[in-house]
Design a protein that fits this description.
It is a single chain. Helix content is 35%, strand content 18%. The chain is elongated and about 60 Å long. The chain is α/β, with parallel strands linked by helices. It folds into two domains: 125 residues, Rossmann fold, CATH 3.40.50.20; 142 residues, 3-Layer(aba) Sandwich (Cytidine Deaminase, domain 2), CATH 3.40.140.80. Helix 8 runs parallel beside helix 9 and helix 9 runs parallel beside helix 10. 38% of the residues are buried. Strand 1, helix 1 and strand 2 form a beta-alpha-beta unit. The protein has ten helices and 13 strands.
Length: 294
């Protein structure tokens, strides 16, 4: 009778480290720790001006935006063939990118990428790395434990009105998907309060909070829901939606009742911290199965 293989034994011992290009926020640390826990080593590429210096405790190199040639060279030297993009970045102006010799030849190509949404641009960047012998992987592929599970986490549950707002929000995200806008909407009473665009989810929630404070939104003290989901046909290797304890603070400040995300389609940096923050704020967090008719 064959012995049962453990998760540790299933890890390829000849595989090089997983390279992680790190922007800002908590997710680069969560991903690096999760990959290490799976038995793989990591090699971090810390993006200057965005990545947390605390990540220097892992094997790392600092890079400026645009140093694709250096990144690829260092990956090859480390026998690394898999690259994950994670963390927040503000889309720079093209003149703010420090192109190295290898990436300088791509300047006309990159300029065209800046005309369009983030998904289009990031998918094209992944294609470029693939042609250089580097496989771009999604964070969910190398650390599936970071994905939001299905169902309610925490003490609070959405009520019937919240369920209607959730269904409305998911329908809206699917409808907007072909236009490559953001992945989040705020809904209250089946009314669209805000749609994420270039300002990001934090900006969306700050706008809702400001509209409440100014009286432009007249709602009960707690009303509405933040809905986040990947866009239809989105390249999930490079731009999965994400939530964390910080999102809870912003949702509470916006006066919403909770968060609904696609189960298996949204990253959570620290689920325990998320639950503690949600329970303390009296908010619900729920993962909705893809294609759910709720």
């Amino acid at each position: 009778m064959a012995k049962k293989r453990t998760a540790k034994a299933a890890v390829r011992t000849d595989a090089g480290p997983v390279a992680i290009a790190c922007g800002g926020g908590a997710f680069p640390l969560a991903l690096a720790e999760a990959v290490r826990a799976s038995g793989r080593e990591v090699l971090l590429f810390l993006i200057c001006g965005f990545a947390d210096p605390a990540l220097e405790r892992f094997p790392h190199h600092w890079l400026a935006l645009g140093q694709a040639g250096r990144l690829i060279r260092l990956m090859h030297q480390a026998r690394s063939r898999e690259l994950v993009f994670i963390g927040s970045l503000v889309r720079p102006r093209i003149w703010q990118i420090r192109f190295d010799l290898k990436s300088l030849a791509l300047l006309p190509y990159v300029a065209r990428l800046f005309r369009g949404g983030d998904n289009r641009m990031l998918s094209a960047i992944a294609l470029y790395f693939g042609k250089q012998g580097v496989r771009v992987r999604g964070a969910h592929e190398v650390a599936p434990g970071l994905l939001m599970p299905e169902g309610v986490i925490g003490r609070r549950k959405p009520d019937a009105d919240d369920e209607e707002d959730i269904a409305f929000g998911f329908s809206l995200v699917r409808t907007l998907g072909p236009f490559d806008v953001g992945q989040a909407v705020a809904i209250a009473g089946k009314r669209v309060l805000a749609i994420e665009a270039a300002e990001g989810t934090s900006g969306l929630l700050a706008n809702v909070a400001a509209m409440r404070q100014s009286g432009r939104l007249r709602l009960p003290k707690r009303a509405g829901v933040l809905v986040k989901a990947p866009k239809p046909n989105q390249d999930r290797r490079v731009d999965l939606p994400a939530i964390g304890a910080g999102t809870i603070k912003e949702v509470a400040a916006a006066g919403l009742k909770g968060i609904a995300v696609e189960a298996g389609g949204c990253l959570v940096a620290d689920a325990d911290a998320l639950v503690r923050a949600a329970d303390a704020a009296g908010l619900f967090v729920v993962g909705i199965a893809p294609g759910s008719k709720r």
